[in-house]
UniProtKB/TrEMBL annotation:
Pathway it works in: Amino-acid biosynthesis; L-methionine biosynthesis via salvage pathway; L-methionine from S-methyl-5-thio-alpha-D-ribose 1-phosphate: step 4/6; Amino-acid biosynthesis; L-methionine biosynthesis via salvage pathway; L-methionine from S-methyl-5-thio-alpha-D-ribose 1-phosphate: step 3/6
Signal sequence segment: none
Enzyme superclass (EC): hydrolase
Gene3D superfamilies associated with the record: 1.10.720.60, HAD superfamily/HAD-like (3.40.50.1000)
Keywords, comma-separated and alphabetical: Amino-acid biosynthesis, Hydrolase, Magnesium, Metal-binding, Methionine biosynthesis
Protein name according to UniProt: Enolase-phosphatase E1
Reactions catalysed, as given in the entry: 5-methylsulfanyl-2,3-dioxopentyl phosphate + H2O = 1,2-dihydroxy-5-(methylsulfanyl)pent-1-en-3-one + phosphate
EC numbers: 3.1.3.77
Family, similarity comment: Belongs to the HAD-like hydrolase superfamily. MasA/MtnC family.
Note accompanying the cofactor annotation: Binds 1 Mg(2+) ion per subunit.
Co-factor(s): Mg(2+)
Organism of provenance: Nonomuraea terrae
Function noted in UniProt: Bifunctional enzyme that catalyzes the enolization of 2,3-diketo-5-methylthiopentyl-1-phosphate (DK-MTP-1-P) into the intermediate 2-hydroxy-3-keto-5-methylthiopentenyl-1-phosphate (HK-MTPenyl-1-P), which is then dephosphorylated to form the acireductone 1,2-dihydroxy-3-keto-5-methylthiopentene (DHK-MTPene).
Single GO biological process annotation from the record: L-methionine salvage from methylthioadenosine
Gene that encodes it: mtnC
């Protein structure tokens, strides 16, 4: 189905929306799991590692948890695919090194880069909101297709600077940060609970239902649906009116 939206901003989910879930769970997750032991044991003095380990201890309710206990918790959260902020921070540290070494190359569906370029060209501001950390998002988009897509993006949000993706308050926090009216902000995601939370905050929503993705056959519960970004036009009516009269 083809859809057209008049909006000032598009906010993008990553896993299942711009990029394949299987790449995240079958390539990125095992890569981080196999490196957590050494990271926690050898680099706990680094500020970001220490901060994330302290957050993990708070989530566990165990202030004295040693590196081995924290590693077991990370493994459990990975197994459950729990989007815990310290897990995402530590994954981001490991993955950054994987991107720099060339072990990891981001995956984007083929329709994503052309669509982002079109929307950006039309004056629509682009943001990312993912459970993956802001540092990971920066790596992901800067190593993306055609020399990277980061230059098209105006801001990055994660569970640390915005909050959990299933909570309407997180979308209100993003609205405040980007200064775009909720009714002119369009969120694209595969997960129904995230779409519901965005809609509850007054945002426009589109359920991205890519064939083969885990949520492909889920009921969209009133959210408009597309199978790829190729079926989605986004522009700013004010801008097109202005340019058509000049
Ligand atoms: C490549 S971003 C990291 C992927 C990840 O760890 C994740 O949890 C993605 O979640 P999303 O909110 O983008 O569905
Ligand atoms: Mg997703």
């Amino acid at each position: 189905m083809n859809l057209t939206f008049d909006a000032d901003a598009v906010v993008l989910d990553i896993e299942g929306t711009t990029s394949a879930s299987a790449y995240v769970t079958e390539v990125l997750y095992p890569y981080s799991r196999s490196r957590f032991g050494a990271l926690l044991a050898d680099r706990g003095h680094e500020p970001d590692v220490r901060r994330a380990m302290d957050q993990a201890r708070r989530l566990l309710g165990d202030p004295g948890a040693d590196a081995a206990r924290v590693e077991r918790a990370l493994d459990d959260w990975l197994e459950e695919d729990r989007k815990a902020t310290p897990l995402k921070t530590l994954q981001g540290i490991v993955w950054a090194e994987g991107f720099a070494r060339g072990d990891l190359v981001p995956h984007f569906f083929d329709d994503v880069a052309p669509a982002l370029r079109d929307w950006h060209e039309a004056g629509v501001r682009l943001y990312v909101y993912s459970s993956g950390s802001v540092a990971t998002q920066r790596d992901w988009f800067s190593h993306g297709p055609g020399g990277g897509l980061l230059s098209l993006v105006d801001g990055l949000f994660d569970t640390e600077n915005a909050g959990p993706k299933q909570s309407p308050g997180s979308y209100r926090a993003i609205t405040e940060a980007i200064g775009t009216r909720p009714g002119r902000t369009l969120f694209l995601s595969d997960r129904p609970a995230e779409l519901d939370a965005a809609r509850a905050s007054g945002w426009l929503t589109v359920a991205v239902r890519r064939p083969g993705e885990p949520y492909h056959r889920h009921a969209a519960d009133g959210h408009p649906e597309v199978e790829s970004f190729a079926g989605l036009r986004v522009g700013r009516a004010e801008q097109s009116e202005a340019s058509s009269t000049s």
